[in-house]
Amino acid sequence: MTKKKVCNTLLIFLALAIAIVIVFPVYLLIISSFKESQDVFNMNLFPSLSTLTLENYKTVFTEENFGGNIFNSFYVATIVTVVALLFHAMSGYALARLNFRGRKVIFTWIISTLMIPFSVIMIPLFIIIKNMGLINNLWGIIIPMIPNAYGIFLFHQFFLGIPKELEESAKIDGASYFGVFWRIVLPLSKPIAVTLAVAFFLANWNNYLWPLIVAQDRELWLVQIAIANFKSAQAVEWNLVLAASCVSALPIIILFFVFQKHITEGVKTAGIKG
Fold this sequence. Notes:
274 residues; mainly alpha; 13 helices
């Protein structure tokens, strides 16, 4: 066996080992979510079908209003994603293409906010939301999550890579700045837009701390808060916690597999451009 074949074989085994390490906890999560509470910590990796039950999922949806929590999370994540993508794309295009005084200063200031932890602005943000009367309101969760320097930065870098000749041709034909943006630039930014859409949706679907502060009524709880309260209110019912976790992970898994091609393309095309 040649040295090259040995290296390839080792790489294959290494890839398989990494895959097993990643997949095993997910498999254990799924299997345990069908077990009864007394069997959750039983490390039987291949339990018989007779020991598995759907009662955990039934309890989660019928007794704990988990369906309402899922709707809240979907509502918040969808609105934040759609509005943020539109605003970030417009901001990124303006900073990449329009010539106006202070453009570089504004861009630098926006990027500098990436270094500020959320915990630093959390209290001032809460005071603002409280004065707006948005405590115990889903819009109190949505509005602060829309601004995101990361999205503006990626759109800005992507737009720098689009040939200016395309925009200049459209302007010669009488298109306005908004027309160029809406009809030419925005469709070309589909790869990065899909990548950011998945990232924004995932971040807001899994958001815990800020919704915990704002949404104090049980009816307004998002998925992650509901799962955390499964854990505290029914500390021994880990089967319910695991079942709820599986349900909450399902939309993200579906989203990733549907858009994985666009995500890969978006990551490749959103390089650092001067």
